[in-house]
From TrEMBL:
Residues 149-158 have a biased composition (Basic and acidic residues). This is DUF1775 domain-containing protein. The keyword Cell membrane does not apply. The keyword Signal applies. CDD domains: YcnI_like. Residues 1-20 form the signal peptide. Residues 149-173 are annotated as: Disordered. InterPro entries: YcnI-copper_dom (IPR012533), YcnI-like_sf (IPR038507). Keywords: Signal. Residues 21-166 form the YncI copper-binding domain.
Length: 173
């Protein structure tokens, strides 16, 4: 019975730990698919509201379109890709490299989501793709940019970057 209670307590604590960082609502996506990245923000910094969220777009995520957010200013940085990508018969050599939502105010005790979508191009199943995120608040900053070394447990990182695991692509497209 004690083991059951200990397991139940540990399981109850897991969601709280998971909410302690910026995460992706859907942490898996098929290779060569359009992916809707929903970044979940569960807290501010030092008890103060989040005022800016910057997301670095990983190489290989192309044709990115962010979702505007009422009350926030949206800015997009563009640049060249490391290589050309096929996007439904069109060659893309540049695109969105960073998306920033700023000027809003998400109180520390509230939750919200920031959304963008794009095409996952050139990733093999099993690959893990990281989205470095910087969360700025009235007081303080969280840099969710840490990427685990080979063999390192991502849970050991203080401020891990949100991770997306690439799965087998859908056949017939």
């Amino acid at each position: 019975m004690r083991a059951f209670i200990a397991a139940a307590v540990a399981a109850a604590l897991l969601p709280a730990a998971a909410d302690a960082h910026v995460g992706l609502e859907t942490p898996e996506a098929p290779a060569d698919s359009t992916y809707k990245a929903v970044f979940q923000i569960g807290h501010g910094c030092e008890g103060t509201p989040t005022t800016t969220l910057r997301v670095r777009i990983p190489e290989g995520m192309i044709a990115v379109k962010p979702m505007p957010k009422p009350g926030w200013e949206l800015s997009i940085a563009r640049g060249d890709y490391a290589k050309p990508y096929d996007y439904f018969g069109q060659e893309l050599t540049s695109g969105v490299t960073e998306v920033t939502w700023s000027g809003g105010s998400l109180p520390d005790d509230q939750y919200d989501e920031f959304v963008l979508r794009g095409r996952l191009a050139g990733f093999e199943p099993g690959a893990v793709v990281y989205f470095p995120v910087v969360q700025e608040c009235e007081k303080g900053t969280h840099r969710w940019i840490e990427v685990p070394e080979a063999g390192q447990d991502p849970h050991d990182l203080d401020e891990p970057a949100p991770a997306l695991t690439i799965t087998e692509g859908k056949s017939g497209h």
